[in-house]
Specification:
It holds the Pfam family N6_Mtase. The protein has about 525 residues and is α/β, with parallel strands linked by helices. Helix content is about 40%, strand content about 10%. It contains 16 helices and 13 strands. It is globular and about 105 Å long.
């Protein structure tokens, strides 16, 4: 990351902290991110309009008052809806509202007009292909909320301050090769997540974990036809996958929380993902999966589902996502239900990687049955990776990553499963455990060695992906002998034998201490005699 990017990130975070006052950070997040998004949409609109108007020797700010204003606006609207998916009039641009709010007099009151503009952006897409991608996108920006201020004047003053501070920042949107604004947006999402406690898990996966998942599913790939996240939160994990390959054809995600769903759509657009290339759906994935997604199979799937979530399988017991297993995940723990859903959506040549609580590795009953089915019946479990505790926001529990492939039977590793114990490989930063780049690299390189042992140049008596006290390539027979229990310590021995105690040396040390104590006692006795008091012995 460049110094300019770091400075921009810090500037934005300072603005957020300066202006939110006593407002809860989780509430202020929706405002600051929403207005950054509005600024982005405005700048993209200006660039698109100027491009379309260039042959006429005009710029967008020259359209208002032009003798053919109405004709030009209609033509620009049609062009923008196809290219961008939305439309903004010159009077609705971020810079115009910021200028008015800072002008003084009666025009400085912009709350009502700002609300109309945000509504207009959504309404501009009605009847177009992008309608679902922009519908209700700004519903969490409640400009009437008392959280902004007790009076209308106070609310207006705060909003104007936010717009003015953001207006001074150049996000370099004009540079097609730059993703400064998208990265800044991602940074703010992460910063708000780190302070949001347990709620953060609803919308954000720490970048360190996202990198691992993304690199696992892109092994041997430089392009992906599609990537899918059934619990996509803010969409950050989907976007992380895109950074690991040259191209992703399409992004698909589902998110049950309406606020987080809006954040995901904004995040996609802010990273310059065209509205035709992503489809985010707002519903419960397990009970109400997207009817569009259900018809598709995905080349890569990544997920950080809510840990041990409650769900109701009764209404969908015959659903083809679950029925082949003969068992449903417990109502109190939906972990394996998410796994079953993802396997169903996975393409034949696809790979999925998901984060789950450790309990999925060894819990019995229905979960044990599903686990055995994935190993013995379909042979789809490829790797089990244990992560350190306390690396997720809002929970300190240890977690694991399961890597599954739809068709392993044609691969050289079809009779094995890789186990990695990375639980002790982290750096403690304040109260949080953090995976450093070298920790991430070791996990991913071990998995890739497992995938391609022939590329390892070392001389090994065992599989080259087996590393003492870190990883082990187990045969399916070994897993069967363990009754399909995947608890990592059964396969990776991390026990460190303590150094033997030299009892003779300890005895000599005790004798020496005894002599030194005798000398000290003599000194104290002498002092006591001089003082004419009894000795303490």
């Amino acid at each position: 990351m460049s110094e300019n990017q770091q400075q921009l990130h810090q500037t934005l975070w300072n603005i957020a902290n300066d202006l939110r006052g006593n407002m809860d950070a989780d509430d202020f997040r929706d405002y600051i991110l929403g207005f950054i998004f509005y600024k982005y949409l405005s700048r993209k609109m200006i660039l698109q309009a100027n491009k379309a108007l260039a042959p006429d020797g005009l710029t967008y700010n020259q359209v208002i008052g032009h003798e053919q204003e109405e004709v030009l606006i209609d033509a620009l609207r049609t062009d923008a809806l196809d290219a961008l998916g939305y439309f903004l009039k010159p009077t609705e641009l971020f810079s115009e509202l910021a200028k008015r709010g800072n002008s003084g007099g009666v025009n400085k009151f912009i709350l009502e007009d700002l609300q109309k503009v945000l509504t207009s952006i959504e309404q501009s897409t009605m009847g177009s292909e992008s309608e679902d991608d922009f519908g209700n996108l700004f519903e969490d920006l409640d400009l009437t909320s008392s959280k902004l201020g007790k009076t209308e004047e106070a609310k207006n003053e705060l909003i104007v301050k936010i717009l003015n501070r953001l207006e001074t920042i150049n996000f370099d949107v004009d540079n097609a090769e730059s993703d400064i604004l998208g990265d800044a947006y991602e940074y703010l999402i992460g910063q708000f997540a780190s302070g949001a406690g347990k709620k953060a898990g609803e919308f954000y996966t720490p970048q360190q974990v996202s990198k691992i998942l993304a690199q696992l599913v892109t092994t041997d790939k430089d392009r992906l036809k599609s990537v899918y996240d059934p619990t996509c939160g803010s969409g950050s994990l989907l976007l992380r996958v895109a950074k690991e390959v040259n191209e992703v054809g399409a992004f698909y995600g589902q998110e049950s929380n309406p606020t987080t769903y809006n954040l995901a759509r904004m995040n996609m657009i802010m990273h310059d993902v065209h509205y035709k290339r992503f489809d985010i759906y707002n519903e419960d994935t397990l009970v109400n999966p997207s009817p569009v997604h259900s018809e598709l199979k995905f080349e890569a799937i990544v997920a950080n589902p809510p840990f041990s979530a409650k769900w109701n399988p009764d209404a969908i017991i015959s659903d083809e996502r679950f029925s082949p297993y003969g068992k449903m995940a417990p109502k109190s723990k939906a972990d394996f239900a998410f796994v079953q859903h993802m396997i169903y959506q996975l393409d034949t040549n696809g790979t999925m990687a998901c984060v789950l609580p450790h309990g999925v590795l060894f819990r019995g009953a229905a979960e044990g049955h599903i686990r055995q089915y994935l190993i013995a019946d379909t042979n789809q479990l490829d790797a089990v990776i244990g992560l350190p505790a306390n690396i997720f926001y809002g929970t300190g529990i240890p977690t694991c990553i399961l890597v599954l492939k739809k068709d392993r039977n044609t691969s050289a590793r079809s009779n094995n499963i890789l186990f990695i114990d990375a639980s002790n490989h982290f750096e403690k930063v304040k109260t949080q455990n953090v995976l450093l780049p070298e920790h991430i690299d070791k996990i991913v390189s071990t998995y890739r060695t497992y995938c391609h042992p022939e590329l390892d140049s070392g001389s090994h008596d065992t599989h080259p992906a087996t590393i003492d006290k870190y990883s082990y390539v187990a045969s399916l027979d070994e897993v069967k002998e363990n009754d399909y229990n995947l608890n990592i310590p059964r396969y990776v021995d991390t026990f460190e034998e303590e150094a033997p105690v030299d009892l003779q040396a300890v005895s000599q040390q005790l004798q020496q201490l005894e002599k030194e104590m005798d000398v000290t006692d003599d000194v104290i006795t002498g002092f006591c005699k001089e003082l004419g008091i009894n000795t303490p012995f």
